[in-house]
Design goal:
Layout (H helix, E strand, L loop, with lengths): L1 E6 L7 E6 L7 H11 L9 E4 L2 E4 L3 H11 L8 E7 L7 E3 L1
């Protein structure tokens, strides 16, 4: 398993660290983008929140892990969250949400 940063802003002030199967690491940025293209079309209520009375898609780490495990980790080790709201680690690959 390889650790990966998930960052939510351009300043990398706050990151979530996930562990993904080694065979996914070389393509993890593209996989993250695939998730971001998919999530607005998700029908599962886990991917939606109500903010100020409006329904908004939610591209949080927990949802990404759920999606990643169902779409890429069916026959291998499951991805998981190592830490949330922590420091960005420059040694790990990055997914920007």
């Amino acid at each position: 398993m390889t650790k990966v940063n998930i960052v939510f802003d351009d300043f990398f002030d706050d990151a979530d660290i996930i562990a993904v199967p080694d065979e996914l690491v070389s393509n993890i940025e593209a996989i993250g983008q695939e998730f971001l293209h998919w999530v607005p079309h998700a029908t599962d209520s886990d991917y939606w929140v109500i903010i100020d009375g409006r329904k908004c898609c939610n591209s949080e780490t927990v949802g990404f892990i759920k999606w990643l495990n169902s779409n890429y980790c069916a026959n291998t080790e499951k991805a998981y969250i190592v830490a949330q709201n922590t420091n960005y680690n420059p040694e790990y690959p990055i997914i920007e949400f």
